[in-house]
Design goal:
312 residues, MetI-like fold, 14 helices, 77% helix
Length: 312
């Protein structure tokens, strides 16, 4: 197991190197000039050239990239082009906020998706099955920003008018601030998990060893949770791992709707819109690292679910 973990961690190195190069190239291909953003629209050509020279933007592309990689290997993500402050503390703080939201959204997705999928598999083609699968289709199709606005309208505005109390609509502070954005972000993943759990459970319930357990008099609860569910978890865990990575990197709309101070808003508002390269590079690199580590944990969890899996 340790040798497998070591090999996987070594394989992440070329992946992260590729990510750094692509991000470094793409942010420099976008329209706009960081020097112009810093100096303002009325700046003269001489001022712009002086700013580019100070920031190193006048040097060749590969020279800038290797300079960035040299600093990265020392743990330095660079300084903001606008504020001249190190970007690492700001990125890390915002990343923790996004991680908090993502974990809460995954809890919502796993609870709703697993329960809906299991009950649908136990009662296929029933009214509950049809309703839950329609809900899953609706959850996948529903735009995140529309759902967020509707939840704020119902549970913040209308609830406040009806009973004098409502959930916080925006910001971050207490556990209550986390409820609406977590539900909004986790709904689409819950729908995917529900459909996956249902289809996998239906396939497992037709296997011969399930029929044997039922013939021996095992209770339905024992058949479902002891025999079927665990064997159905491997594809579900794969979906959960991919969903977690997708939520971690795709929470921009949710963070924008609910004014959540996460890394997605940081990338858009203080990175891309102001052409602040170090913020964009450092933030995306951290998200990519989180995605790679989640996939490693999913692979390791396979062996716990199915003891027949061995990492030789």
């Amino acid at each position: 197991m340790l040798s497998y973990i070591a090999r996987r961690l070594l394989l992440t190195i070329p992946t992260l190197l590729g990510v750094t190069f692509l991000v470094f190239a793409v942010v420099r291909l976008q329209p706009g000039d960081p020097a112009q953003e810093i100096a303002g629209q009325g700046a003269t050509r001489e001022i712009l050239e002086a700013i580019r020279q100070e920031l190193g933007l006048d040097r060749p592309f590969l020279t800038q990239y290797f300079d960035f990689m040299e600093k990265l290997f020392r743990g330095d993500l660079g300084k903001s082009l606008k504020t001249k402050e190190p970007v690492a503390p700001k990125i890390w703080g915002r990343f923790l906020h996004t991680l908090e939201l993502t974990l809460a959204a995954m809890v919502v997705a796993i609870l709703i998706g697993s329960v809906a999928g299991i009950i649908s598999a136990m009662r296929p083609y029933s009214l509950w099955d049809n309703v839950s699968m329609f809900g899953a289709l609706f959850g996948v199709s529903m735009p995140v920003f529309w759902q967020g606005i509707m939840l704020m309208l119902v549970f913040s505005l209308w609830l406040q008018q009806w009973i004098g109390w409502g959930l916080p609509a925006t910001g971050r502070g207490t556990l209550l601030h986390l409820i609406l954005p977590a539900i909004t972000l986790g709904t689409s993943s819950a729908a995917i998990i529900a459909r996956m759990v249902r289809s996998t459970m239906l396939e497992i319930l037709r296997q011969e060893y399930i029929l044997t357990a039922q013939a021996k008099g095992a209770s339905q609860r024992s058949v479902i949770f002891k025999h079927a569910l665990r064997n159905a978890l491997i594809p579900v865990v794969t979906v959960v791992g991919l969903a977690f990575g997708g939520l971690l990197s795709g929470a921009v709309l949710t963070e924008t709707v609910f004014a959540w101070p996460g890394i997605g808003r940081l990338i858009v508002e203080e990175g891309i819109l102001t052409r602040d390269y170090p913020i964009v590079q450092g933030a995306i690199l951290l998200v990519a690292l989180g995605f790679v580590l989640v996939n490693l944990l999913v692979d390791l969890f396979y062996a716990y679910i199915d003891p027949r899996i061995r990492y030789d």
